[in-house]
Amino acid sequence: MQSILVKSVVALTGLAAAFGAILAYASRIFVVHKDPRVELILEALPGANCGACGFAGCHGFAEAVVKGTASAETFCPPGGNATMARVAEILGKEAAQLVPMVALVHCAGGLSNSAQRLSYDGIEDCRAAVLVGGSPKSCVFGCLGLGTCAAVCPFGAIAVDAEGLVHVDPKRCTGCGKCVDACPVRIIELVPKDMRVHVKCSSHDKGPVAKKVCTVACIACQLCVKKCPHGAIRMDDNLAIIDYSKCTNCGICAAVCPTSAITDEVKVRPKALIGSKCEGKGRCKEVCPAKAIEGEPGKRHEVIRDKCIGCGLCLDACPTRAITMVGALGPQKERE
Amino acid sequence: MDFGQLLAIVIGCIFVSNYVLMRYLGLCPFVGVSKDLDSALGMGMAVIFVMTMASLATWLVYTYILVPMGLVYLRTIAFILVIAALVQFVEMVLEKTSPVLHRSLGIYLPLITTNCAVLGVAVVNVDEFMVAGIPRNASFIYTVVNGFSAGVGFTLALILMAAIRERIQLDAIPKPMQGIPITFILAALMALAFLGFTGLKIA
Fold first, then answer.
1. Can you give the residue range of the structural domain that contains A213?
2. Could you give the 3-state DSSP secondary structure of residue A121?
3. A29 contacts on B by Cβ (under 8 Å)
4. pLDDT score for A330
């Protein structure tokens, strides 16, 4: 009895000790000298392995950055500037700063706005739907609403509503651009995150055609092009395109657009208020795109609050600096 | 040693008594790592490698330590020890000698430590080939071949499963059945299909 006990304990302990010794010795022989910075950077990265940086996953990115083989443009779009600052700190370098981007779907033609051309009953995938008979919508440029972009989004930032429209949650969207590549009708674009005024249409149809198939289409009337005080809008083959490097989010284009194809996401805009310094020179009246300022020359002018769209043009035009912007957040001397 | 016997072992492990579909061992990776073909192939290769090595190592431990000391009833715990140490060792060697292979197999190796199919192969080896009447060198070769072909059988089942799962990815599966439930049904149907090999005899 006792001998069995001793034997089994000795055998197993001996076996375990032998393996332990082998492993301990092997860990010395087969030690791999790794750059600890790779692990540190890997921890700083979001870890979604989305590939937006151009490398095969976060590990590839971390290794390339440490080795210095990564080019100057190497950037982690999901992590953004904060992550890149961490990475730069680990490497002891200056961080590159980029404007955070967010995905934007250039279509607002849901089921109630845009007619269906045919009833599609196949695989729930936009790419498959486009292959069989083109877009099921009458507007061939529009969003199909089958959610291919939502399926490829690694961050769960895209949702399709009952209208068949795609919504991007700007809080979750990291601007990795996977949806941009996945969309077969190419209506998703990466835009600067702080931009609030967008053309929600991709139709290159002529005005009457576009209007026939969708109530919120860009009909190429060019009103926005004419009214934009910064020259930021141009027409490209019957479609208004906003140049985001010039756009100031003033919202004039959205206010004048007859079909609401241009949307203004600023919830509450401040209103202009003319103070007692006004000498009635009327410069504000001339520049106001909404015709919201009234008054006789030489007398203090007044703003019709319901008409004011809060674009702030009068602010810059006033020679006596009598105008302030008053908004939901209180008086605001200068609009940002 | 008999080549007919070897062929019977190979065919038996891959088809007739496939470790996953007929013996129901190693179901965790079978369901978990069969989402896409690439990782299924990686896992399969890692399992083939570890099963072959584990068969070899457990044969040595069993024949030269457990049998002489009369401790064959401790084989389960001894084999677990051997397999865990072996996988750890293999991971170290791979990381040093072949970083590329380590990158592709590395994440699966720790999974295999706790894979019951590997232990199952070792135990089956003992029951079938390390019995009286089989000479030592023949039992050694049978054991290693059995381990290798068990891995091949596992890989075959895994790849078949991954291929089917990739094909049904876009199918209209009812929501409650999506994911694991439909995979279980698939596994059951595959096991039924493999039942057709029962009775296959290598003369």
1. 101-264
2. coil
3. 96
4. 43
